[in-house]
Amino acid sequence: MAEEIVNRVANNKKLITFDLEDYYPEGNRILFDIKDWLFEGLLLREKDFRKHVADHDWSQYQDTYVALTCSTDAIIPGWAYLLVTSALAPIAKKVVVGSLEILETILYNEIIDRLDVSGYQDKLLIIKGCANKPVPQGAYITLIQKLQPLAKSIMYGEACSSVPLYKRK
User: Fold this and answer.
1) For residues 140 and 108, what is the distance between their CA atoms, to the nearest angstrom?
2) Per DSSP, what are the bridge partners of residue 97?
3) How far apart are CA 146 and CA 23, in angstroms?
4) Rounded to two decimals, what is the model's pTM?
5) What is the helix (H) or strand (E) element at residue 30, kind and residue range?
6) Are strands 153-157 and 163-167 parallel, antiparallel or unpaired?
């Protein structure tokens, strides 16, 4: 009779799994590209740009997360992003300049900064690695920096196949 294989790591009740996906902020993400408001996609004409901002239907961004970008090689003055943001600020949940990944990273950084991690003092932690939601790599970097001063050890992955990252000496 063969011995039953027991996964002692997965069954270890002292291990705490930290899943960043649990903190995913719900809401639509929108990449807002201002290139269509530029003359020939390259030149920002202030009067025309201000008209686009004034005439645009901003209500479609209600309670969304917005990443402002320009997908062309145009040189965009800083005030242009500020002007668009001033229209979005009362409506959107969050506005950033950059890609959707930058947006996700900023959202997670804000969430991690607010987390009370005092309960992880001297604990054995696994930071869950597989996610169905877009958890950016930067969020994991921010999380380990917050947890490492407290944790006894930190691993990454799943309990059955974790990679050791840190162990207090």
Assistant:
1) 9
2) 68
3) 15
4) 0.85
5) strand 29-33
6) antiparallel
Of 61, 68, 54, the closest CA to residue 27 belongs to 61
- Angle, CA of 117, 120 and 122, to the nearest 5°: 140
CA–CA–CA angle 63, 67, 68 (5° rounding):
120
Task: Answer left, alpha or beta for residue 90, where phi above 0 means left and psi between -120 and 50 means alpha.
Answer: alpha
Q: Indicate the domain borders of the chain.
A: 15-25+115-167, 29-92
> What is the rounded distance in angstroms from the CA atom of residue 53 to the CA atom of residue 85?
10
Gyration radius from the chain CA atoms:
22
Distance of alpha carbon 16 from alpha carbon 65, whole angstroms: 31
Task: Per residue of the chain (169 residues), give pLDDT as tens.
Answer: 667 654 454 455 689 999 999 999 999 999 999 999 999 889 999 999 999 999 999 999 999 999 999 999 999 999 999 999 999 999 999 999 999 999 999 999 999 999 999 999 999 999 998 778 889 999 999 999 999 999 999 999 987 888 999 999 8
